[in-house]
Amino acid sequence: MQNRTSLRSLASFESALLTKRAFSGFLHIPVVAPAFLRYIYRRAERHQRPLIASINVVNRCNLHCAGCYWTRTEREEDRQELSIEGGIPLLHSLWEKGARQFLFIGGEPMTEREKVEQWVCEVAQLGGISTVITNGTYGLPAPGEWPRTHYFVSCDGDRTGMNRVRGFDVVHQTNVFELVKSVATQRKDVMLAMTINKLNVDRIEAFVREVATWGIGGVVFSFATPNVGDRQSFYLSTEQREQAVQDLLRLKREFKDFVAMGSRAIELLRPSEVEQWSQRCPTFAAQSIRADGQPLERCVFGPTGDCSRCGCNISTSFVALREGDSETARFVTFPARRAGIS
């Protein structure tokens, strides 16, 4: 009887930590936030509940970027996209399951700006944090216009790298790199996300050195993740990827927090490390949702993604948290700080 009472008390205590007020309150305390996140991760792992929800706002995009995982898995699928009203119950359901950070992706989510705005406002009312992941070609809201929200803009290198991967926006008749620069400059609530592949691996350092002058919140990196059996030349060899990770670690030492990833999260992108952790990947921590509101199997890359060659920085961040890495825990609180709540 005493054990059952203790378990009920523990469950009540844990639930209280995830309420709107408690969640925001702990993120407001820089010294406490990393330890709080490590605790929340362990709790989520124990119960196999998500911490992050990744939602495809639309199943459309104005660009055709080389190697895009969404193009491989979703572009040709005929999805009935959720309406604004239809997405509200989904957000509440994901919140009840444990999600506290919501990633709004696509396709290109900003093609439906009103929908994204309504959804981030709903997330804010729940007490969560929103991250809009966009190619930047449809612009961004003004700083602070959307509550508890920050932005990742995809930018696959400097001008040379971007031209190779993304090229020209035929909808807006503009060079994509110039559009990204115009929306991101002097925005601390904006970070740039570079996905590394054979087309742009030689532009990593040039990219960091250029965008470090833009006045943005920082940069993060991932590697293009192939499907099982995919051997096309777009993806890095083991040796190339190892060298790229070494380059990232060197830039991390030089640019410090501007490279907004923990060193351990970067190290875990090494092929030898991926081989070890991918067999126990914390996919439970991020629930991925299609544009029609149905869950994607396993993770954002779908059931055909090659786990043994995964390049996802979200996965490595969760693995680093599982290992107890304090630096990664600090960087995981970056969304809260960039969203203006801590």
Automatic annotation (TrEMBL):
**Which SUPFAM superfamilies does the annotation name?**
Radical SAM enzymes (SSF102114)
Tell me the InterPro entries matching this sequence.
Answer: Aldolase_TIM (IPR013785), Radical_SAM_PqqE_MftC-like (IPR050377), rSAM (IPR007197), rSAM_sf (IPR058240)
GO MF annotation terms: catalytic activity; iron-sulfur cluster binding; metal ion binding
Taking every annotated instance into account, which residue ranges of this chain make up the domain Radical SAM core? Answer: 47-264
User: Sorted alphabetically, which Pfam families does this protein's record hold?
Assistant: Radical_SAM (PF04055)
Q: Which domain of life is it from?
A: Bacteria
Q: Which UniProt keywords apply?
A: Iron, Iron-sulfur, Metal-binding, S-adenosyl-L-methionine
Listed PANTHER family? PEPTIDE BIOSYNTHESIS PROTEIN YYDG-RELATED, RADICAL SAM DOMAIN PROTEIN
The protein in question is named: Radical SAM core domain-containing protein
Q: What high-level taxonomic lineage is stated for the organism?
A: Bacteria, Bacillati, Chloroflexota, Ktedonobacteria, Ktedonobacterales
